[in-house]
């Protein structure tokens, strides 16, 4: 592990990689603070730019954006009462009241220090657990890989906010889209409708651009008229003293623990961890009535949870090929586009990429701190501008990116079609991340599933032949039964209320 990290620091420390990571982090701070934009959207739009780069350099840009958005989302939440990211909405509860009381600089300082502490501790957990879980995962068979992928897909679909059934429908739709193209075993056409463009399957990039680019733009057009209630004039970051941080160590600890634990659960993400951590901190506080009135603890908890959740989300992504949130789902797609196969063999086949990503995370935390302190005044000016000019630029970049995938117009049509489909589904409560995850995991599940059957002479008992497989099958069945029961109880309760 130590040797791998040293190699990671040496690789990331190359001048070009450091520059790309620095620029990506700065851009992430801006993107995170602009409502209507998001980390997944920024990663998708810039993904085509990384085509000509080597894999590690490409990941530097994307990791920097991923890290920077976590802190950037709190800036507008504190200064303008407009959370730049969903997780920033929790920070707004106490950050904006602090600004109204003339403590805006202190609120920015607490959010910055919490993001740094959470990011570093989350990184430590990722560094410790990724090699361990990866080693265990490397002992898996094709049957194990297929079951792990299926369990991850079910968990993500089940953990999505809203209806579990809709989450499962999205996952099934993604699996269906993942079957388009030539059969990997027999070479038979599947759902191509005679189109040569679909022979190789649904391209990842147009799907990502459509669902995470065009869909978000269509969904957020209405928010362009939203403006902050006020703007903090003297935008500076005043860091708390060491004694202040130590006095409130429990708030940081709660945020970090919940961020890592919940962030590691595939599909849950930083938004859930921030609210759960905030609720727990408020419940155990001796003065819960002060939460929401503008206290430092209300800023420290959600920011530490959001930053620590990055380390948690990277654990399943780098070891099992299962994303912890929307951003890591796109990072998986980026690896595939650079001919790196994610999953349980990633550590064995590409250890340099894994340790490079882990190293980039902690360096990006340092960059995030420096950039935020030096450029907060400039960021505030950018945040306060009319955002109507941003979306057209994003549409152009997304369209060019889809075209650059194959230098043909067909991927652009696909991206637009997926964007409209994603918008329709999201307005009806269907999470698009489950569709994208189905497209990514579907081929992996199918290929390993069929190879496992072929190696066992088509004996279905191969999926319960050893205890690891039996445990995975039990987990999958238990998840399906539990969620089906919950859905049935919800329908039953709805029907009973309707009669009343």
Question: Could you describe the 3D structure shown?
Answer:
The protein is mostly helical and 500 residues long. The protein has one domain. The protein contains 20 helices and two strands. It has helices at residues 2-12, 15-33, 39-46, 55-79, 88-100, 104-137, 142-159, 164-178, 204-220, 242-247, 249-263, 269-284, 297-320, 326-337, 346-349, 351-383, 390-404, 410-427, 432-455, 467-499; strands at residues 181-182, 189-190. It has a two-stranded antiparallel ribbon with strand order 1-2. Strand 1 (181-182) and strand 2 (189-190) form a beta hairpin. The chain is globular and about 70 Å long. The model has no long low-confidence stretch (mean pLDDT 81).
* Measured distance between first and last alpha carbons: 62 Å
Instruction: Profile the largest sheet.
Output: 2 strands, antiparallel
Pick out the low-confidence regions: none
The count of domains is: 1
Helix content: over 70%
Shape: globular
Strand content: under 5%
Cα-atom Rg, whole angstroms? 23 Å
Instruction: Kindly report the spatial arrangement of strands forming the biggest sheet.
Output: 1-2
The tally of helices reads: 20
How many E strands?
Answer: 2
Summarize model confidence as the mean pLDDT: 81
Spell out the helices and strands N to C: HHHHHHHHEEHHHHHHHHHHHH
Please render the helix and strand layout as text:
Blueprint: H1 2-12, H2 15-33, H3 39-46, H4 55-79, H5 88-100, H6 104-137, H7 142-159, H8 164-178, E1 181-182, E2 189-190, H9 204-220, H10 242-247, H11 249-263, H12 269-284, H13 297-320, H14 326-337, H15 346-349, H16 351-383, H17 390-404, H18 410-427, H19 432-455, H20 467-499
């Amino acid at each position: 592990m130590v040797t791998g990290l040293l190699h990671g620091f040496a690789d990331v420390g190359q001048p070009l990689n450091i520059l790309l990571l620095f620029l990506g982090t700065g851009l992430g701070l801006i993107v995170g603070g602009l409502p209507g934009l998001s980390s997944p959207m920024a990663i998708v739009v810039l993904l085509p730019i990384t085509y000509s780069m080597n894999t590690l350099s490409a990941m530097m840009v994307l990791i920097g954006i991923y890290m920077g958005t976590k802190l950037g989302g709190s800036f507008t939440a504190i200064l303008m009462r407009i959370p730049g990211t969903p997780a920033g909405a929790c920070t707004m509860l106490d950050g904006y009241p602090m600004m109204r009381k003339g403590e805006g600089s202190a609120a920015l300082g607490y959010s910055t220090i919490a993001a740094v502490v959470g990011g570093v501790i989350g990184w430590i957990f990722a560094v410790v657990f990724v090699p361990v879980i990866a080693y265990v995962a490397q002992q898996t068979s094709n049957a194990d890989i297929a079951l792990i992928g299926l369990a991850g897909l079910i968990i993500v679909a089940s953990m999505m906010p809203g209806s579990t059934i809709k989450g499962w429908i999205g996952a099934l739709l993604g699996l269906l889209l993942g079957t388009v193209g030539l059969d990997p075993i027999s070479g038979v056409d599947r759902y191509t409708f005679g189109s040569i463009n679909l022979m190789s399957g649904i391209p990842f990039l147009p799907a990502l651009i459509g669902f995470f680019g065009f869909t978000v733009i269509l969904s957020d057009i209405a928010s362009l008229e939203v403006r902050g209630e006020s703007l903090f004039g003297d935008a500076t970051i005043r860091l708390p003293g060491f004694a202040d941080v130590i006095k409130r160590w429990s708030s940081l600890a709660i945020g970090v623990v919940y961020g890592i634990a919940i962030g590691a659960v595939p599909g849950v993400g930083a938004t859930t961890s921030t609210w759960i951590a905030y609720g727990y901190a408020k419940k155990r506080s001796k003065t819960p009535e002060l939460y929401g009135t503008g206290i430092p603890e209300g800023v420290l908890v959600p920011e530490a949870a959001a930053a620590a959740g990055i380390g948690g989300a990277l654990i399943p992504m780098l070891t099992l090929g299962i994303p912890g949130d929307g951003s890591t789902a796109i990072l998986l797609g980026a690896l595939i586009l650079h001919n790196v196969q994610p999953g349980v063999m990633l550590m064995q086949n590409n250890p340099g990429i894994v340790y490079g990503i882990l190293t980039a995370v902690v360096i990006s935390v340092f960059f995030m701190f420096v950039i935020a302190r030096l450029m907060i005044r400039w960021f505030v000016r950018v945040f306060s501008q009319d955002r109507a000019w941003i979306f057209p630029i994003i549409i152009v970049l997304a369209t060019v990116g889809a075209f650059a995938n194959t230098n043909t117009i067909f991927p652009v049509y696909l991206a637009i079609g997926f964007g409209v489909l994603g918008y329709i589904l999201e307005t009806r409560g269907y999470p698009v991340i489950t569709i994208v995850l189905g497209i990514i995991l579907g081929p992996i599940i199918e290929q390993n599933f069929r190879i496992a059957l072929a190696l066992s002479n088509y004996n279905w008992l191969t999926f319960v032949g050893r205890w690891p497989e039996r445990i995975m099958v039990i987990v999958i069945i238990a998840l399906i039964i539990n969620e089906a029961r919950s859905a049935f109880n919800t329908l039953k309760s709805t029907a009973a209320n309707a009669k009343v």
